Amino acid sequence: DYDNDGSLDLFVTNSAKWTLDDQPSSKYFQGKSGLRALADSPKEINALYHNNRDGTFTEVTEPAGLKGSGWGGDVAAFDYDEDGNIDLFVTNMFGLSQLYRNLGDGKFVDVTPQTLGRTSWGAIGSKVFDGNNDGKLDLLIVDMHSDMWAPFENFPGVLETVQQSSRKKFSMVTGPISQFDRNAFDEEKRLVDSFQVEKSKVVFGNTMFQNSGNGKFEEVSDKARLESFWPWGIATGDFDNNQNEDVFLPSGMGYPFFYWPNALMMGNDDGIYEDRSRTEGIEPPARGIHFEQKLGGKAAARSSRCASSADFDGDGRLDLMVNNFNDQPYYFKNEFPQRNYVAFRLRGTKSNRDAVGAVMRLFVGNKILTRQVHSAGGYLSQSSKTLHWGLGEHSEIDRVEIRWPSGLRQKIDNLAINTLHELTEPEE
After folding, report:
1. Domain 10-339 listed as CATH 1.10.750
2. 3-class DSSP state for residue 213?
C-alpha cells in the first residue's frame, strides 16, 4: 500500500523483450546467444499499478518515477527510513539493483548510491528482516551468479580469480574464460565486453546491508558470512527458537555447472551466521549429476529454486517447503528441540486487511526483536504472514509494539507465550 489509502497496490517486475517471436531451445534470444543477448536486448519497464478500490487498477509507473528497465527478479517492499511510507528495493538479474525511496506524494526517487553505497550486480532475490536484533529492518540480497565470475576492468577479456580465503565475496574460477564450454558463453570476449562495470560500485555475491537507522545502510557481507553458491530464493525465520533469525538459501544450477548445495545459515547473537546445512539434515551426502567434469562446483542432491517457511504442523517450530527444478518439492519438518515461542496473526481495519507492511517489535530481556508482514518472500515464493518469534529460555515477554500501515501505533503488555495470538487493528 504505497499511498497509505488502505488498499494493496501492485508492483510488477519485468525482464526483456524477445528479438523475434520464436525463441529456440537452449538460447535466450533469436539471432543472439549467451550473455551478450541479455545485455543488448531491449528491456521491458517495471510497472506500478494503483488500486482504484473498485476492482480495477491504473498504471502509474512513469508519474511515480519507477520507469526502470532491466531483468527484474524480485522486489522488497519496506519502510527502510521509518517515515511511514513503503519504499521499494528492486533486484536486477543482469545489472545493478535499485532502492527507491517513497516521497509520500505518489512519487519515488532512486537513492541507491547515497543509501546503500554500492549494490549487488546480478541479484535475483531479496529479503527484509532484522538480522542483528537491533530493532531495525536489514536487507539481504542473493546473487544468482554468486561469486562465480566478476568483470575485471583492468584486463579486458580476463576474469578476475580470487580465492575465498582471501576475499570472501568472491569464489575461485577454475580456469581461464577460454576453457569454458562455448555452449555456455558463446564467445569469451563478449562476456567481459558486455558487462564492463566500475568495480567500486558493485558487489558480486550475496550482500547483507545492515540498517544504520539514519537513512543509510552499512554493508556487512563479509562479517555476516552468508555467502553461498548460485542461490535463488530466501526463506528466513528463527528455526531453532533461540531469538536469532536464521536464513535458508535454496540453490542450484544445472547445465553447465554442477548442482550447488542448499545453505542453512543459523544466526548468532554477534550477527555472524554459521552454515549448518549438513548437520541439521538439509543437505544429504552429495550425489548430484555432473554435466561437465572440467567445470567447478559442488555436487548436491537436488537443484532448488525457492522456499517458504511456516509452522505447518502448529507445534511452535517453523518448517520449510522447498521447490526444486525437475524434481518433486521437499518438505522439511522442524525437529529442533522445543523452546519457548510466541506468534501473531495481524488483521487490518483502517489498514489493508492482511496488514501487509505492518512492523511489529517484541521486547524480551534486553533485546528488541522486529518482524514485518510481507506480501512476498523472495524469488517465486511467499512465506507465512504469521509473525513468529523464538524466545529461547525466556518464559515471558515484556511487551509488543505494532506500527500499522495506517500509521496507528499500538502497545500491548502481558501476553501469553507458546501460543498464536490474533490481533485486530484498533479503530483509533
Report:
1. no
2. coil
